Amino acid sequence: MEKVLDEYGEQPIYLSVFPDNEAAIHLYEKLGFVLLDEYDTKGEQVMKKG
After folding, report:
1. How much is the pTM?
2. Strand partners, 47
């Protein structure tokens, strides 16, 4: 994560996760991501940091 932040600085970072993947959601939340009320074309929920 630090390498990504070094490269992109303060720009928002987005990722997507299947809504039923609670372990991944919990991990990403611990890293500072928040769930958005948006879904990608595969049905994954979008998360954002920054």
Report:
1. 0.80
2. 15, 35
Q: Which helix (H) or strand (E) holds 37?
A: strand 34-39
Looking at the chain, the number of H-run helices and the number of E-run strands are 2, 3
Q: Using CA atoms, how far apart are residues 50 and 35, in angstroms rounded to an integer?
A: 12
Instruction: Report DSSP letters for 18-31, one per residue.
Output: -TT-HHHHHHHHHT
Q: How far apart are CA 42 and CA 47, in angstroms?
A: 14
Q: 3-class SS at 32?
A: coil
What are the tens digits of pLDDT across the range 29-49? 999 999 999 999 999 999 999
